[in-house]
Write the structure tokens for this entry.
Amino acid sequence: MAPDSRASVSKTFISTFGFLLAWAYLSLVLNMPNWTGDLFGPNHVSPSLEVAAIFGLLALASAAGGRASRGLCVGLALAALVLAALRLADISSHMLIGRPVNLSLDLMLLPAILEVLAGSATMPELAAAGVAVPAILAGLFFLNLLAIRTAARFLERRPNRRLFAGALAALALPTLFGLAPYAPLDQGATALLRWQVAQAAQASVLRAAHLDGFRNDPFAGLSDDAVLAHLGRRDVYVMFFESYGETVLADPRYRSVIEPTLADFDRALAGQGFGVRSGLIESPIRGGQSWLAHGTFLSGARLGDQGLYNLMLESGRQSLAHYFRRAGYETMAVMPALSRAWPEGAFWGFDRIWSTDDMGYAGPPFGWAAIPDQYTLDFIHRQKLRQRDRPLFIEYALISSHGPWEPLPPLLDDWDGIGDGSVFNGMAAPPPTDQPAWSGMTRNYADSVDYTLKVLRDYITRYVSDDALIIVLGDHQPAPLITGDGASRSVPVHVISRDPELLAPFEEWGFTPGMIPAPERPPLPMERFRDRFLAAFSARETG
């Protein structure tokens, strides 16, 4: 073979190899799955029809003008970057909150997301992320541009365009026999983009339907004398337990840590004359956005996204706190992680909201959940429970089990010495013992749940001396990276009181004695709690 011929063959081989490599790279980018466990699976590594369409544009441009313009290549590289960023956001959304990304709703959450990240990471970590994220996006863009320009150069030659058309035909042939050589179109990046557009388009229609439902409150007509009359003006404490999900009972790793603590909690309650009934509640969310669970519980309507939550604020619907206020209760929300103004607190019906700045905490921060749950319960007890002239309805947001679950505060035996929290300075939690080997994050999660359960056990048995009704429930399951893919939305709920009459309605709901819920009982949707509670404890009106 002549030298010129060998050079031509070599050039053709390199050009073809570069084209195939560009197709493979862009397919991996645009076929990214929504779960890390599916990375490099069959659908991820299959050829992408979306990339074939991009290359088809390049081929048409070359056929029309002899060469794809630089502007076209840059535009296609930017489009591929946008689609890749959308896929990365979708992966993150599935891993953290167990649902697809929804740009029409999630963009408004960016401030809250940044706040959580800022509270969970150190300054060096934030600085590194500030450099790494733009660098990664820039790197993706340049790799996209390199791949597209490589393909464009290959498709400038008419024989190569014919070869490309033949390759498409060859890949399409197996579909005649029911085979799928391409990655499924309904799982690609453009399908996700179409879904985003559809969600935004139907938002206004759904808004009107939901608003009508929110304004239909079956208990709005109750007289103040009838509302919650059967509670006998006993205090009611709702203790939302961050990321306390069914996984602590369903996953053997977590159960090995949590079950002994629940059993000890049960014995401690019985020793102080308390009864307890437990069940499962289905939260509207997983992994995050705790306020949606709080809103669902209080409103009696399922608030599964930020749009519905915002709509609820416009509805005028009475929350559970409003009904307690009508029954003569003082209503309070204890939110130790609330570090900014919360004007919607007035909508939810709270007379007083205790935020971070109101807590008088002088100890060190413990990760994102800066104020330990033990301090929160002790502080409110000293500030409010010893001095009041009305019965209390208090909703607590306990946060020590919020990700990233470290550092964990120590559990103090001497509650009388907690004071302003400065006692925590210089303290560290004891190292975990007798635990199975698993990743640091999952073990930290188990430790944090164990810590808050022990805090609640000690607080209730030490300080609750009357017939108060205490409702302890999870707000949502932890992130899917803790539970694994496909976990339920169920969370445990424990109802505690010394008065059997206050526990009786919950037995009718299917709750069972003890701190461990019966797994065979179906979970109660969280949005049904409010109406069932009002029906059980309000007086029936006749006439």
Summary: The first strand starts at residue 236 and ends at 241. Confidence is low (pLDDT under 50) at residues 433-438. The radius of gyration is 29 Å. Strands lie at 236-241, 275-282, 330-334, 352-354, 392-398, 469-474, 490-497, 512-513, 524-525.
